[in-house]
Design a protein that fits this description.
Layout (H helix, E strand, L loop, with lengths): L38 H36 L3
Length: about 80
């Protein structure tokens, strides 16, 4: 059994929290009317959903990177 010779480092505060913008709730899908709508309206709703998906995906990726970096630091890596 190998003994860990690294000194024990006490954390001076609670775990770092992610920036609020990374932890923000993602937009819900747009509400599609329960009636016939024009092709242009359909395209605008689709574009809004796609833009929200890209924004949410970037935020999710940033949040995952934040926790990976924080946890690696806590593990001394």
């Amino acid at each position: 059994m190998q003994i860990d010779s690294k000194p024990v480092v006490e954390l001076g505060s609670v775990l770092a929290a992610p920036p609020a913008e990374l932890a923000a709730h993602c937009d819900d899908p747009v509400a599609v009317p329960d009636a016939a709508i024009a092709a242009g309206a359909t395209e605008r709703l689709w574009a809004q959903d796609r833009a929200s998906l890209v924004t949410c995906g970037g935020r999710h990726s940033g949040l995952a990177q934040f926790y990976a970096k924080r946890d690696a630091g806590l593990a001394g890596k």
